[in-house]
Design goal:
By secondary structure, this protein is an alpha/beta fold. The chain has 3 domains: 303 residues, Peptidase S8/S53 domain (Rossmann fold, 3-Layer(aba) Sandwich), CATH 3.40.50; 70 residues, Alpha-Beta Plaits (2-Layer Sandwich), CATH 3.30.70; 54 residues, no CATH class. It contains 12 helices and 22 strands. The strands form 7 sheets. It has a 7-stranded parallel sheet, sandwiched between helices. Strands 2-3-1-4 form a 4-stranded antiparallel sheet, covered by helices on one side. A 3-stranded antiparallel sheet has the order 11-5-13. Helix 7 links the parallel strand 9 and strand 10. Helix 10 crosses helix 11. The longest helix has 19 residues. The chain is globular. It starts with a helix and ends with a helix.
Length: 470
Amino acid sequence: MILLRSVRFLLSALVLIMLLLGNPNTPWTHADTLFLPVVQTDESAAVTTAAAGSTWLVQTTPGVALEQLCAAHPLTIIETLPALALYRLVNVGPALYDCLRADPRVLVLTADSTAFVLEAQHTQLNGSSNEFEMLQRFFGYGSGDTNTLFESINIGQKPPKKGRQAKGHAPQVELVFVAPKAVNLLTARLEREWRDWGQRAIKLEKVAGWHNGAGIIVAILDTGVDLTHPALVQHLLPGYDFVDNDALPDDSIDGVDEDADGVVDEGAGHGTHIAGIIAQVAPGAQLLPVRVLNSDGGGNLFDIVAGIVFAVDQGAQVINLSLRAQEDSPLLRAALRYAAQRQVLVVASAAGDETGLDYPAAYAEAIAVGAIGRDYFVADFSKPYAEMVDLFAPGILIYSTYRDGQYAWWSGTSMAAPFVSGAAAIFLSSGQCPADCTRTLMVNEVDPVRPNIKHSGSLNLEKILKRLTR
């Protein structure tokens, strides 16, 4: 894996040299085809006779309509995506399944299950469960709710004297339960010490007065966005809701435990938080909300793929994907290639373990973003795969917009990715640096992280600006 990272670093460096020698339009490498000659099947689902009502995805070779295949078997097509020759079916019985699987004109045949989840700190942190990030969302509400009984302490230590702190250990972040009367004290401390730390870390102030993302569309594929939030409404374009199939991609709740984890609507507010970060970094950019995840943070493959194609077709130049799936999918890869071939930058929050990244961050077409805390320490939850990410950005205790017109702190690589998406919008809006140039500069003109990672670093807008303007 280290060898692979070395090769990717050398390729990026070569592209950067070409850019600096006066060839800013050199495209970054990607496959020329959207159609992979692989049949991906779900054998276990087939064995269980593909019960009526289950949903399946079929991708055919270009120019072949699904209706031309398996004519002896009735087809119930509920959705199509012509750009990728993709069909969504129900009532796929064993006979139809076997027929489709045997036809060489079928490239992909797979069940369309809920496989994607929002990526916001799914691993344990300092012994705490995932409740850590779930509870963090509610800091900053400012509602005076006396039922809020939790607090965060030790949320940042003064820099130790040289040599006092063990190498590679970040300041600890802990969650404890305290009396309600302490809530206002903590909120004040967070406001004072943490509210804008992410913007400072990426040197956002150094590009103030230069460009701000004006004229650039950033698509947010997530749980939706609070469409009436005072801080966002002026940035929003009409989007689409692929979960409910309507034109209202609101960051709503439904009170249903879709993932049967005993928690209801735990993903709500996620997309709104992402949108707020992008708006803070690139206030001139327009935001395209595309709802592909439900309020529990889950989504299915077809909606994700369709959302990417929709965003590209609506003119998005940047797509933010703060979500992940553990399984590789040729359909998801095809959607990212669809974007790449149209010079659309895809930014994905990193997740995974020491064996590799999850998807879509693992694809070369995406910029995989890990998280850092203050003082540029790699976040604990990003350490297992730190050597594999393309770029790091702030991702611990990030203050941003939240649903119902409110604000919150939240942690995760989900929060790191939109810093990169916003930065991409800034440099694209300059007109000096197209997609391939922006990608290359962002992943090369970086600050070192702690512990040091040889081929990656933290987003630094000042260094990128200096390289562009010198």
